[in-house]
Design goal:
Elements lengths: L1 E2 L2 E2 L11 E2 L3 E5 L6 E5 L8 E3 L5 E14 L10 E4 L11 E4 L3 E4 L6 H11 L4 E2 L2 E5 L7 E2 L4 E10 L9 E4 L2 E4 L3 H6 L3 E2 L1
Antiparallel strand pairs: 1-2, 3-14, 4-5, 4-6, 6-7, 7-14, 7-17, 8-9, 8-13, 10-12, 11-12, 15-16
Length: 192
Amino acid sequence: MTTTGFIGVKLAGPPIVCFKEGTMIDIMDNNSKQETQVKVEDIRKGMYVKTYQHGFLPVKHVAFKTIENPETNDRIEKRLYICDQAKYPTLKEPLIMTGCHSILIDESEYTDIQKKMIREQNGMLFKTDDKFRLPVMYDDKAAPYCVKGEYKVWHICLEHFDQEMNYGIYANGLLVESCSERNICLAEYDHV
């Protein structure tokens, strides 16, 4: 099914919610105890990541996988998308994520088409804290990253008593979701 350039996809397994290698994540520096940024691939279990509403929380899992990215403009789940500073003013540099990775927004920022596509895929709209999740593959401001090749993508999960829950975190300055423990454990990732 195609609707205004989007392809409705029923997920065959856990969504691939990852950052392209090189993405900068806001953390607390262990030595200075000051906020800083570190590449996602350099994050390790026990480091403290800045969250949207819960201060700095420890990392529970770090995982990665390699995906094949197409050079087409198809809006599909299993590919990379790029968000640039012209359309996302809080970005410090362009952000590249997989299609199921969500930007956290206010409900008023959804379009009717986005709501329809998300409901068709997931059955409902999901929230992280008081923000709604907008998968980047359904965000008109994001563009398919059309550089063909294999890319290592990274996934982080913060400690939470509920394995289905996640947090809002900052990637290159943009508020996005972290991964839930359930998704990171179900997916076929290599853990570090």
